[in-house]
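Sample log: Transposase (putative) YhgA-like domain-containing protein.
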Amino acid sequence: MVETKLKGEDGLIIVHVENQSSVQSSFPERMFVYFSRLFEKYRIRIVPIAVFSHDALRDEPSVFSIEFPFGEVLQFRFFPVELRKKHWRDSIRHDNPIAAALLGKMGYTESEKVELKKEFLRMLVRLELDEARQRLLLGFFETYVKLSEEEEQQLQREVKAMETKEKENVLGLIISYEQKGRKEGLEEGMERGIQQGMKQLIRNMERKGMTVEDIARLVDLLEEDVRGLLEE
């Protein structure tokens, strides 16, 4: 929810944006309830917008009405934004974090995946975000657009063949996150290995007749943690 002004007007308005990630028949009613509560509280004009981010290609209703055989009592409308019906190419020209975040939920074909990720990375470079925001947007994008190893290699080849000023920065972005991924994977593997070794050691101690209290003191763990490892 954002409080803002319309261009050329003095009065404030509220822009209420609601994300809907699944198909729900009662959603229009929910939008009306939210609208009513906001209006009751603030008593100013409200722009209700629904962003449909699910994968179903359907015509989402944008009206909630109450009527009787003798007449209509209410007709409430909101503005629907159906991401799957928006093609990613129409949004790639808009360099802003919101467009970047939603790119992976827009319409694309399997054959466009590599190009989609390449253009997403170019946008990420142009946005000049800090590393934390870059990782957040990249993680969100890769949740929905997953490339195979072969497609990742194709992506690198296409980036290397680019003749734009973003080329080196995009390559650097790919290499940087690949290295981070390998490092995190290695650290995770080492952590799992250490935990497995600790479990084995504790079980061996128990088999030799040592009490949980003695084991906890020797391996510098809480007694509850030792019991948990023995029960796994």
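Observation: The chain is about 55% helix and 15% strand.
Observation: The first helix runs from residue 27 to 42.
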